[in-house]
Design brief:
The complex is a heterodimer of chains A (210) and B (138). By secondary structure, chain A is mostly helical. Chain A has helices at residues 5-21, 23-33, 38-55, 61-75, 80-95, 103-121, 131-146, 151-167, 192-209. Chain A starts with a helix and ends with a helix. Chain B is of the alpha/beta class. Chain B has one domain (4-120): Rossmann fold. A 4-stranded parallel sheet of chain B has the order 2-1-3-4, with helices on both faces. In chain B, helix 2 crosses helix 3 and helix 5 (97-109) packs antiparallel against helix 6.
């Protein structure tokens, strides 16, 4: 199974709906160990993305991803803006001008997105950040794609691994971002960025398989 | 043509207040605050930072100072979207926000080039004399 422009738009709309549904929860998580704005910020960003999608007519999946990137960078207003923005921007560059994406292309885009986030935020695995969801997602996506998986299977594998990665941030002490100022007090809490990353991939996976 | 200063803060008031302080000793330098979001709430704005860079860099370049980590992330992203010639002249400097802004602004006011302004901001933390910072045990 592959994904065309309309499929990509549908997937992004599903992400926006998921972000809206989890807005309060994400903000609550961020209030525990951060500045308490993650849900609000992401929701503002994806609401703006919906407006742009309604107004524009992106010509291929890469153009959809680039529209998401520039909109998030302009509207999110916290660290999540540049980080998610860079992720979508690198994914857009990775898929190029292709009209449809297969499982391998999605795995490659996810890899490029993760690499962009690491380059931008300088976080490593175990720092209690979105990288702790993204890196297991990339590994799982590559395995699924190498096994001949289509878009739905690749994203389902990525989403499952990301959710597990997010859960695994609970015992970690934050070493990057606002939570790192809390030192040991950051232990015992879910990382908001890893959590939202998991939700985002889950929304993509559900749309691709549904 | 002097080197400009961009001040990225999560708070509109913090950036504006620091710009006012630094301008006292550097009346000819463009000190462009980019604090908060467009609506005045707390955050860092890609658009406001991009606008501030445009005002601060008159061709001689600008340094950009930030208050907290996500300010750095947004600033770095803004630089990535600049035209490459201008991006080379705008340098994010990891210096103390207030002292770096004042020291950098004075260096620019007295004719320092981009390299000199960067150095002044970086050295602000260890500068001697009135206003300089000494170590906790010194």
């Amino acid at each position: 199974m592959s994904c065309d422009t309309a499929g990509t738009v549908a997937a992004i709309r599903a992400v926006a709906a998921t972000v809206a549904a989890h807005k309060v929860e994400l903000t609550h998580l961020d209030r525990e160990i951060g500045d308490g704005d993650h849900g609000e910020n992401l929701s503002r960003g994806f609401t703006a993305v919906l407006t742009k999608l309604d107004a524009g007519d992106p010509k291929n999946p890469g153009a959809v991803l680039k529209l998401v990137a520039t909109t998030l960078i302009s509207t999110v207003g916290g660290a999540a803006g540049p980080l998610f923005g860079t992720a979508f921007l690198r994914a857009a560059t990775s898929v190029g001008d292709a009209d449809t994406l297969d499982g391998a292309a999605v795995a490659a885009a996810l890899t490029a997105a993760r690499d962009g986030v690491v380059a931008r935020g300088k976080a490593e695995s175990g720092d209690k950040t979105m990288v702790d969801a993204l890196t297991p997602a990339v590994t799982a996506a590559k395995t699924a794609a190498d096994g001949g998986g289509g878009v739905g299977e690749v994203l389902a594998a990525a989403a499952e691994a990301a959710a597990a990665g997010a859960q695994a941030t609970i015992p970690l002490q934050a070493r990057k971002g606002r939570a790192s100022y809390l030192g040991e007090r950051s232990i015992g809490h879910l990382d908001p960025g890893a959590t939202s990353t998991g939700y985002l991939l889950q929304a993509l996976a559900v749309t691709a398989t549904g | 043509m002097t080197v400009g200063i961009v001040l990225v803060s999560h708070s509109r008031e913090l950036a504006q207040g620091l710009a006012d302080v630094a301008a006292q000793m550097a009346p000819s330098v463009t000190i462009a605050p980019a604090g908060g979001l467009e609506d005045g709430s707390i955050g860092t704005s890609f658009e406001l930072i991009t606008d501030a860079i445009g005002r601060a860099d008159s061709g001689a370049g600008a340094i950009l100072l930030y208050d907290l980590g996500s300010g750095y992330l947004t600033a770095e992203t803004a630089l990535e979207f600049l035209d490459p010639d201008q991006a080379e002249r705008v340098v994010i400097v990891d210096a103390p926000f207030v002292l770096g802004a004042v020291s950098g602004a004075i260096a620019a006011q007295t004719g320092g080039d981009l390299r000199a302004v960067i150095a002044a901001a970086l050295e602000a933390r260890t500068a001697n004399g009135p206003g300089g910072v000494r170590s906790a045990d010194g």
